[in-house]
Amino acid sequence: MLVLTEAETRAALPFAALIAAVRRMFAEGCEMPVRHHHGVRVPGEASATLLLMPAWQPGAYIGVKMVSVFPGNSTRGLPAIHGSYLLSCGQTGQLLAIIDGAELTARRTAAASALAADYLAVKDASRLLMVGAGRLSQNLIEAHASIRPITEVVIWARDPHKAAQTAAQIVIPGITVAVATDLETAAGSADIISCATLSTEPLIFGDWLKPGCHLDLVGAFKPSMRETDDGAVVRAEIFVDTRDGALAEGGDLVQPIESGVITPLSVRADLAELAKGLYRGRSSDQAITLFKSVGAASEDLAGAILAYEAHRR
């Protein structure tokens, strides 16, 4: 049985190959039951979340990921996300691999955002604003830079020191990295805005967005969480990773739907429809596009298969 550490998982999932694998998975499809999503009480601090995400391709592979999200870990100097992925044979049920779940999650999440941006961001997008400075931010920056000609990255976080630390760790040839002190100004000049936070209140406002901007919303994976305001979802052409997931769990869409600002029909397409060529993406270079993701087990399965087969070769 193969066991992949965090570093080995990262090495097995280069973004070019991973984005291609996620694209194929959405185009081909797999069996993907609704994931288990449980709140876990943590005395004296914010509640945690337990996620169980199964998926399989009949006769090929079966996978399941167990992930925990503990917001309080930021005060302990620990990652908020921990998890493991179990990949089994789809013919025998034999366990084939245990893969670092947090690294798999971070990279496949970034790959899904980059895949969406490949359909939705303007072709000459060069300026990226990263909102949030956690572990996922570095993956998102690298993934977006792999599919668009990014030359400038600006990072904003509530803690400027943490933003500076993250900026110092990012070294990509041809790309300058800086820290934003004024979020509104940074957002107003960005071609792509990627948000990966645990915010419960809007951080990015629709009035700030310039024509042609692409808004990538990765945080706010609960109905009670939110990274944008109603103005952003009203102005934007809306896309999601999966309708079932985003419309049930993504606060950036759930809340404005509940208040009647938009409806489920406001979602133009999901990643499967984009990958299959059923929808072409943004309507024009002047349109504002919004991609809301909450994660899908199919993305994990695509990454796990890629990592496993890379080590078999």
Automatic annotation (TrEMBL):
Gene3D superfamilies registered for this protein in UniProt: NAD(P)-binding Rossmann-like Domain (3.40.50.720), ornithine cyclodeaminase, domain 1 (3.30.1780.10)
Lineage top rank: taxon: Bacteria
Entry GO MF terms: oxidoreductase activity
GO CC annotations on file: cytoplasm
Gene Ontology biological process: carboxylic acid metabolic process
Keyword annotations from UniProtKB, A to Z: NAD
InterPro entries associated with the record: NAD(P)-bd_dom_sf (IPR036291), ODC_Mu_crystall (IPR003462), ODC_N (IPR023401)
Entry similarity comment: Belongs to the ornithine cyclodeaminase/mu-crystallin family.
Record-given protein name: Ornithine cyclodeaminase
Protein source organism: Pararhizobium antarcticum
